[in-house]
């Protein structure tokens, strides 16, 4: 590992980038007056086309504010541009039956996809954003040939390529499981703002020129899907271990990605790795091989940090923790006390799983709901968004939080102060396949007056359009033998 950093991408991000207030620009709870106005205009466009239903006294909104605001940030708060992308995504999801697909995806297929893309370490950075690790060197030709062969045998079919449908499930896990969990856990800065991005460490040490080229379409897929349909879910990428030839090939490598993605990539030389990572991430949450204290490598199960683990009860039983951390999971409401249930989905040997597997304790969800209502009052909207505690309740919860109670084995029972079993609330239908048919943490109608004393306004919805024009998302694989790679070889 040397100091082979391209001149146009040299060095770590500026020091202020690690500050929470820098990330918060354009996020819920920190919108300018102009941005709030654009947000309301964007919602009105979505309502008019039947692509968004606001919350009422009887029902929650069809989409949370945290999801909607990402499209506005991606399009520089131009409502029409954000709406065009949002509409394309909603139609793409419908065409590919993506909500149902996440419920039914074969867990073996899901875990295979997880093995060849960035993996959550189970830890968060100093701002509460989940930290992912990607060791590209482990994706040798043998592994990738086996993965490609597995894709060709997959029974999952749709308008989009099968490889993209598998990759989609990983993004769904990020937005349905990891982000809501990181949002709800107390003890992070600015809890009024939901976590809606990820931080990535990408290790390219021991990667040869031929391996880079063979992985080009594989890496392009992730960038294409995120840019088109999961906008603004990436905070930044730290590339470490750049080989000696990297400055030479960076010019054509960055053509594989869109400009928004490349602007978030920072290539670190050897001596910049630990100082840069520790400016964003506490040292106990940095993997050991990069100078930190965390015993984690790509391919391991996430190692939940104590603050996350102490808010959870994972159902005792064989492989429960493994399924919780490595299989498709989503959150649903579990009772009147506000606790959330993690529902294990996907299928095993053709049989669908819809099994409660963990509980997020009511303390974490209560402070999430309180902070969500605070934000709804601040922006005078009737659609609360997922977010945890306010600074005051954060201080209270920190006094009440117990020590780390992570079981030493998968079969160890939960502490007696926590429920030993998990049951959904009466009326919760675990067979529902659509993410929009189940609640997410802290979502739902307001139970109290707005800041101006009025009640949430009921909005009469127009009927959905019969047909909506869309722009098809194209997935392009580069030519197999371009002249420029011959020149570089």
Automatic annotation (TrEMBL):
Q: CRAL-TRIO domain spans which residues?
A: 109-298
What InterPro entries is this protein classified in?
A: CRAL-TRIO_dom (IPR001251), CRAL-TRIO_dom_sf (IPR036865), CRAL/TRIO_N_dom (IPR011074), CRAL/TRIO_N_dom_sf (IPR036273), PI/PC_transfer (IPR051026)
Q: TM spans, by residue?
A: none
Q: Which SUPFAM superfamilies match?
A: CRAL/TRIO domain (SSF52087), CRAL/TRIO N-terminal domain (SSF46938)
Among Pfam families, the record links this protein to: CRAL_TRIO, CRAL_TRIO_N
- Location of the region described as Disordered in the Swiss-Prot/TrEMBL record: 371-489
Among CDD domains, the record links this protein to: SEC14 (cd00170)
Q: Where is the composition biased (Polar residues)?
A: 371-400, 408-420, 429-441
Q: Where would one find coiled-coil regions in this protein?
A: none
Q: What is this protein called?
A: CRAL-TRIO domain-containing protein
């Amino acid at each position: 590992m040397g100091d082979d950093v391209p001149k146009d991408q040299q060095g770590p991000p500026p020091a202020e980038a690690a500050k929470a207030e820098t990330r918060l620009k354009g996020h819920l709870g920190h919108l300018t007056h102009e941005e709030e106005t654009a947000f309301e205009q964007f919602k009105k466009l979505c309502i008019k086309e039947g692509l968004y239903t606001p919350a009422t006294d009887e029902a929650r909104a069809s989409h949370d504010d945290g999801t909607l605001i990402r499209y506005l940030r991606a399009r520089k708060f131009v409502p029409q541009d954000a709406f065009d992308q949002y509409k394309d995504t909603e139609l793409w999801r419908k065409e590919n039956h993506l909500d149902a697909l996440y419920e039914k995806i074969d867990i073996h297929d899901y875990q295979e996809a997880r093995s060849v893309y960035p993996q959550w370490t189970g830890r968060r950075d100093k701002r509460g954003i989940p930290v992912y690790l990607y060791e590209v060197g482990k994706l040798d030709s043998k592994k990738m040939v086996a993965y490609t062969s597995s894709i060709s045998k997959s029974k999952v079919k749709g308008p989009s390529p099968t490889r993209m449908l598998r990759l989609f499930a990983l993004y769904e896990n990020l937005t349905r499981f990891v982000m809501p969990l990181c949002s709800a856990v107390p003890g992070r800065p600015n809890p009024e703002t939901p976590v809606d991005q990820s931080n990535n460490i990408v290790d390219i040490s021991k990667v040869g020129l031929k391996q880079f080229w063979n992985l080009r379409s594989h890496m392009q897929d992730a960038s294409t899907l995120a840019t088109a349909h999961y906008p603004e879910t990436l905070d930044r990428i730290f590339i470490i271990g750049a080989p000696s030839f990297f400055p030479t090939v960076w010019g054509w490598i960055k053509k594989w990605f869109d400009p928004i993605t490349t602007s978030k990539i920072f290539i670190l030389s050897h001596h910049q790795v630990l100082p840069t990572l520790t400016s964003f991430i506490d040292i106990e949450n940095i993997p050991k091989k990069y100078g930190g204290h965390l015993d984690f490598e790509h391919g391991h199960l996430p190692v939940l940090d104590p603050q996350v683990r102490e808010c959870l009860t994972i159902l005792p039983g064989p492989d429960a923790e493994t399924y919780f951390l490595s299989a498709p999971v989503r959150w649903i409401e579990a009772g009147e006390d506000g606790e959330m249930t993690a529902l294990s989905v996907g299928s095993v040997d053709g049989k669908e799983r819809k099994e409660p597997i963990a509980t997020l304790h009511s303390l974490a969800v209560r402070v999430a709901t309180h902070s969500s209502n605070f934000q709804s009052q601040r922006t005078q909207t009737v659609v609360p968004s997922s977010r945890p505690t306010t600074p005051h309740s954060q201080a209270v919860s920190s006094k009440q939080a117990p020590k780390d109670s992570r079981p030493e084995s998968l079969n160890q029972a939960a502490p007696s102060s926590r429920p030993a079993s998990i049951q959904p609330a009466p009326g919760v239908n675990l067979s529902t396949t659509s993410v929009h048919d189940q609640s997410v943490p802290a979502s739902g109608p307001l139970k109290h007056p707005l800041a101006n004393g009025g009640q949430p306004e009921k909005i009469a919805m127009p009927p959905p359009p019969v047909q909506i024009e869309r722009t098809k998302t194209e997935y392009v694989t580069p030519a197999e033998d371009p002249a420029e790679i011959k020149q570089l070889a």
